[in-house]
Amino acid sequence: MTPSEHVQEVLNYIKECSPGQDEFYQASHEVMFSLLPLLNEDSRYLDNNILERIVVPERSIIFRVNWLDDNGKVQTNLGYRVQFSSTLGPYKGGLRFHPSVNLGIIKFLGFEQIFKNALTGLQIGGAKGGSNFDPKGKSDNEIMKFCQSFMSELYKHIGKHTDVPAGDIGVGVREIGYMFGQYKKLTGEFDGILTGKGLNWGGSKVRKEATGYGSVYFAENFLNANDITIKDKICSVSGSGNVAIYTIEKLYDMGALPVTCSDSRGTIYHKKGIDLQTLKAVKEINQESLEAYAQLHNDCQYIPVSKYPTGGHAVWHVPCDIAFPSATQNELNLIDARELFKNGCLLVNEGANMPSTPEAIEFITQNGILFAPGKASNAGGVATSQLEMSQNASMAQWSFEEVDIKLRSIMRDIFYTAYNTSIEFECKGDLITGANIAGFRKVADSMIEQGAV
Length: 453
Ligand code: NDP
Prior knowledge:
The chain has helices at residues 3-17, 22-34, 36-41, 44-47, 50-54, 103-119, 140-154, 173-187, 207-225, 242-253, 276-285, 291-296, 334-342, 358-366, 374-377, 380-393, 400-424, 431-450; strands at 59-68, 74-85, 91-97, 126-131, 163-166, 234-237, 257-258, 260-263, 266-269, 301-304, 322-324, 347-349, 370-372. By secondary structure, the chain is an alpha/beta fold. Helix 6 packs across helix 18 (431-450) and helix 7 crosses helix 8 (173-187). Bound molecules: NADPH dihydro-nicotinamide-adenine-dinucleotide phosphate.
């Protein structure tokens, strides 16, 4: 059997064993076919059945979360923790609270996390978790009740040397705080079992900013390697959550001009530049829709979802030099990619996990637009989480500048690891292949060294 046939066989197996898990299949498909240059050259990976082993999580935990709403009524949600790989270190990966969460979404995120974490060069395995709980419209008390119930089961499966979850969509410092408090109450221990903690109780400076800042540092390295600078570039950013806000902040620091942001209800196009202070007030403090931003700036354009171009997303139809998809999976499709190309876009730098569809990626890469895959370009968040774990282990707290310098250097290393691997496999600048092979090789070699466990 050729390596290509072998890959197809494993993918068929995934389809058979994981019905309805489309996102997981999509992520596995992308990773496995991009590994072919390595698999063709080194038979050890197929001889040791690494593909068959790596697509199966070491453990998947699904649990019921009962919680009391403000009317005293019992509500029930599903909780998940998929512990995918502990080959390189304790399981690590975020928790997502969003109504779209299901096992397939958590598996795709956990699978990507294995390779992302390997790329950071740090000792962390891959995992992901979350719930189909919808935080929107819930009172603070209801969020607390839910987080406490969620942790009442999750605490049995995590620990500072076993599994250290962090935040993701719908999970920020408030939710981490409520979960941390419940863990402490249940176990009587003050342990670094979560990252993204508050600065007063073990959090790291720059963790909040890390994914967005890291994404811009990655873009800067990629552009510089192509003799382009980031200064004065017009940037389209999607999303208006943690990743998007700190992408926009760092773009301003670097002299670029972010002109868009979006949420699940619409897009803001502010040609003179997004007003960061208003954006933080609307989204971080008041947790309102971006319509509130538009009401405060009559020189910006607000495009509600109902007015989006047919089949596309308004945020990618605005002329820009660099696109930073930073909201959610599959938010940039072929129609959007064509529009970006038409408008002269130079780089698509993924801030979210798997935001571009396979058809969009194919079009982007075939038409000479630079493409930074999320598992490399958004790895700054998890890398800084690991820096938080290091600070917790040594009871230290580093300064903002110290952590930021480390983050910048880690992002540079991730870029060059992916870039140099692309050169090694004769596809210079193809960072999908470069990042996937570099991440996979590190995990797979370690799996072989650790035996069939
Ligand atoms: P947040 O919850 O802070 O923000 C998510 C943003 O995306 C919100 O603006 C939200 O809109 C929007 N959004 C979510 N779902 C949809 C949807 N279906 N359609 C349109 N807009 C949507 O999450 P983060 O910023 O933390 O995460 C964003 C992405 O980055 C995710 O893919 C996440 O996995 C990835 N990521 C995050 C890391 C982190 O450190 N936080 C690390 C690495 C990757 P609304 O406000 O209306 O809900």
